[in-house]
Specification:
CATH class of the largest domain: Alpha Beta
CATH superfamily of the largest domain: P-loop containing nucleotide triphosphate hydrolases
Strand order of the largest sheet: 2-3-1-4-5
CATH architecture of the largest domain: 3-Layer(aba) Sandwich
Number of helices: 8
Largest sheet: 5 strands, parallel
Helix content: 40-55%
Structural class: alpha/beta
Radius of gyration: 24 Å
Number of strands: 7
Strand content: 15-25%
Order of helices and strands: EHEHHEEHHEHHHEE
Length: 270
């Protein structure tokens, strides 16, 4: 089984999950992945490519898998608990707080009066749930998706960070190590195969020309080659491979992908 050391910290707006994540990353010496950093990574990799909502988790997981080869990760993004959930060595944390505590946090952080902070919390909650629903299929967090839940209305952020550190040490999380390059390649191939179904490829595509494909699977394959920046050409060919008894020719239609790379030559026979 593929394993790696990762901590995810999730929480609805106003729960101080961002502060908990920052303090925990410092204690564990893990690389912190926030929502803003994740979006920067996506912009760098895909630039002007439009990412469909349902493809967003796969794009994010693909980019984080690259980082996991070099760093232990602490992920504090919307839907963080959904990433790598089939892998060993992932500790999923949820931070909760009463509404009054969440409003109070916004009053302090944003320097707002209570009515304005209450209204802002409602807006942030609506946006949070809408984004979760667009990207992950549902807007609410489920308790069974987490290993540990902390109440920031009772325990402050530094105390929660210390408790997470103890939990990770008790579970020997670091012993799971970094993601191996072979495992990363396996994850990347599966992720990028899924993304190719959406026609998504990073910048610097090397496709030599556009083609009209005879079957949707060929389009998916072309997208996958684009993802790995393998130059290709699509050349429809027809040639005889057998003849009838009376000597008449029977043509077989063959579509070929030629990869313009010294390391591979791939073809698809149809």
């Amino acid at each position: 089984m593929i394993s790696l050391a990762i901590v995810t910290i999730s929480g609805e707006p106003g729960c101080s999950s961002e502060e908990v994540a920052r303090l925990t990353a410092q204690r564990l010496q893990f690389e912190l992945i926030t929502e803003s950093r994740l979006r920067t990574l996506i912009d760098q990799e895909f630039q002007d490519v439009s990412i469909p909502d349902r493809a967003y988790p796969q794009v994010a997981a693909s980019l984080m898998a690259k980082l996991a080869v070099e760093y232990h990760l602490l992920i504090n993004t919307i839907g963080a608990e959904t990433y790598f959930r089939q892998l060993a060595g992932v500790l999923r944390i949820r931070v909760v707080a009463p509404e009054s505590r969440r409003i109070g946090s916004l009053m302090v952080d944003r320097r707002l009066e209570r009515p304005a902070a209450r209204a802002l919390l409602g807006e942030l909650e609506s946006g949070y749930k809408a984004q979760r629903k667009r990207n992950f299929g549902r807007g609410v967090l489920r308790s069974d998706e987490f290993d540990i839940t902390y109440n920031s209305g009772v325990i402050d952020s530094d105390q929660i960070a210390r408790m997470i550190q103890v939990a990770s040490e008790t579970l020997h999380l670091r012993e799971h190590g970094l993601l191996s390059q072979a495992a990363e390649a396996q994850i990347q191939f599966q992720m990028r195969l899924n993304l190719s179904k959406h026609g998504i490829a990073p910048v610097s595509k090397v496709t030599l020309k556009h083609a009209i494909f005879s079957h949707p699977s060929e389009q998916i394959f072309a997208n996958l080659l684009d993802f790995y920046r393998i130059a290709w050409d699509y050349e429809p060919k027809s040639f005889p491979i057998s003849w009838d008894k009376d000597g008449s020719r029977w043509n077989f239609s063959r579509r070929i992908f030629i990869c313009r790379s010294p390391i591979c030559t791939l073809s698809s026979l149809q």
